[in-house]
Amino acid sequence: MKRNCVRLPALMVLWLALAPAGFAEPLPVKTVEFSSEAVGRKMKYNIVLPEKYEQSMDRYPVLYLLHGFSSNYRSWARLRAPEYARSYDLIVVMPDVGNSWYVNWAVSEDGQKNRWEDYMVKDLIGHIDATYRTIAKREGRAINGLSMGGYGAIMLGLKHPDLFCSIGSHSGALSYAKSAGERLRSGQPLPPRKEPSTTPVPEIGIEGFSSQAERTPKGKMFEKAEDCAACDPFQLVLQVPREQLPHIYLDCGTEDRLLDSAQAFAKLLREKKIPFTYAESGGGHSAPYWAREVGVSMAVQYAILQRALNGTKTPAPAVKRGQ
Q1: Residue-wise over 268-304: b if at least 16 C-beta within 10 A, else e?
Q2: What is residue 78's DSSP assignment?
Q3: Residue 9 burial (CB < 10 Å; 0-12/13-18/19+)?
Q4: Model confidence, pTM
């Protein structure tokens, strides 16, 4: 197994000290419904509260975990996130965004409201901070995701560095907006989307938002190359003042089709001397990989949150390590 990250001894000590051994009893998962002005509908999220939340009046940092394309807010609960969360004084929020890619769509059709970036950074975070005892500031928030959600977490974190002190990606489609922009600049149309399934998924439990067809926005995500640039992590990371950059965590499986994207983004960060944590290990674009690696990223991001809240800086240079 190959993994590139901070330093092997430091990460192993962190993992052994903080991560649950074996299969710990997962924390309870609560499903909550709320109304979002940005998308004009009721939405749901899953949330895991710290074990002693009800017995204390403490405030807690929040980790937002974002799902991938064709998935939903229930996916992270199946990927051991509630189990890993037991080791930390941490609120874990797992929202739903359908197949939106976490962006404000350039064009919405059929009377839809598809401001999914606003849904995340305004409606959802505002609701979470108003409803739970959170540490409602940058130092108390981290965001991470897988695949489409990995892109979303890095993109949102770089567009809103005032909101998150740590941003992360598992197997992220980090080149998604970059590739779309290159096509539009060359005069090529964006590739047509596959016709999504109209079969409802009852477990999602959101009226009018349970089939892949309903969960895929109507309209155009990007209309011009400028729309892509505004959501492209490769450009966004160069626009954030160095002192305002959040900690960046990246990993990808060595058999993952998106490995080139992760390596290209890591190469850019190295060239620009931007601190980050990077890991590669065996695995593909699959649930077993994410269920394993979220345990590592949660340990790292919790440590970053604690350091930020304690007022210390957290350098995280990319240093290769291998088996």
Answers
A1: bbeeeebbbbbbbbebbbeeebbbbbbbbbbbbbbbb
A2: G
A3: exposed
A4: 0.90
Angle between helices 287-309 and 8-18 (to 10 degrees): 90
**Domains in the chain, ordered, with CATH?**
3-321 (3.40.50.1820)
Mean pLDDT by 10 residues, the chain (323 residues): 41 47 76 98 98 94 98 97 96 98 97 97 98 97 98 98 98 97 90 88 95 96 96 98 97 98 98 96 97 97 96 46 29
Which residue, 310, 305, 307, 311, is CA-closest to 141?
Answer: 305
Q: Backbone phi, then psi, for 293, in 5-degree steps?
A: -75, -25
Supply φ then ψ for residue 219, to 5 degrees: 135, -150
Which backbone phi and psi does 16 adopt, to 5 degrees?
Answer: -70, -30
Task: Count each helix (H run) and each strand (E run) in the chain, helices first.
Answer: 11, 12
